[in-house]
Design a protein that fits this description.
The complex is a heterodimer. By secondary structure, chain A is mainly beta. In chain A, about 0% of the residues lie in helices and about 55% in strands. Chain A has no helices and 11 strands. In chain A, strands 2, 4, 5, 6, 9, 10 and 11 form a 7-stranded mixed beta sheet that branches. In chain A, strands 1-3-8-7 form a 4-stranded antiparallel beta sheet, with no helix packed on it. By secondary structure, chain B is an all-beta fold. Chain B is about 0% helix and about 50% strand. In chain B, strands 2, 5, 6, 10, 11 and 12 form a 6-stranded mixed beta sheet that branches. Chain B is globular, with a radius of gyration of 14 Å. Classes of the chains: A mainly beta, B mainly beta.
């Protein structure tokens, strides 16, 4: 398996534009996580899906952020409109099972909003 | 609020020095505990994990961690660090009571001087 695949790897956009980050989890995994990493806040959990259903989205900063998982092999994280403070590295991770297994991370998307 | 705390944000050591990174969590009930490492410019990778049994777990690259339930702690140790251990280290907790969310601590940046 190719692992967790995220796209794009880098994204530079202007403030106010819509940004969509994509994630393809490892085949057979049933849980998916979106994290945001910044120097100030470390690694923050944004949203957690289990069997394609959002279980906890309490980490989503505000209504400008939304995430979907239409099927077991694809998830998106959308920011609309984007702001400079959204600049960060966004990681997607997936795992099999309920919590007693390793979560595998993608390479991340480095987002810069200017 | 439930959380994962890493006490040291930055650690600088010389090669061959011993390492101990602290991690405490506030979740009750059954937990699974992890340490992940992030080398510069890379994604997170699993170092070791604790699910049950022997509270002293051994991971890759000579790392080990000890689960002390009474102290809600899971500290990471390595007897003798190498320059190649320079990285950021994250403690993570999966809490069954919290719906199997995987939550990370703020991370500890380790720099090993040659």
């Amino acid at each position: 398996d190719a692992g967790v695949i995220q796209s794009p790897r880098h994204e530079v956009t202007e403030m106010g534009q819509e940004v969509t980050l994509r994630c393809k989890p490892i085949s057979g995994h049933n849980s998916l996580f979106w994290y945001r990493q910044t120097m100030m806040r470390g690694l923050e959990l944004l949203i957690y899906f289990n069997n394609n259903v959002p279980i906890d989205d309490s980490g989503m900063p505000e209504d400008r952020f939304s995430a979907k998982m239409p099927n077991a092999s694809f998830s998106t994280l959308k920011i609309q409109p984007s702001e400079p403070r959204d600049s960060a590295v966004y990681f997607c991770a997936s795992r099999w099972g309920q919590g007693d297994t390793e979560a595998f991370f993608g390479q991340g998307t480095r987002l810069t909003v200017v | 609020a439930q959380s994962v705390s890493q006490h040291n944000h930055h650690v600088i050591l010389s090669e061959a020095a011993s390492l101990e990174l602290g991690c405490n969590y506030s979740y009750g009930g059954t937990v699974n505990l992890f340490w992940y490492v992030q080398y510069p410019g890379q994604h997170l990778q699993l170092l070791l994990k604790y699910f049950s049994g022997d509270p002293l777990v051994k991971g890759i690259k000579g790392f080990e961690a000890e689960f002390i339930k009474s102290k809600f702690s899971f500290n990471l140790r390595k007897p003798s660090v190498q320059w190649s251990d320079t990285a950021e280290y994250f403690c993570a907790v999966n809490s069954y009571n919290a719906g199997n969310m995987l939550t990370f601590g703020g991370g500890t940046r380790l720099m090993v001087k040659p």
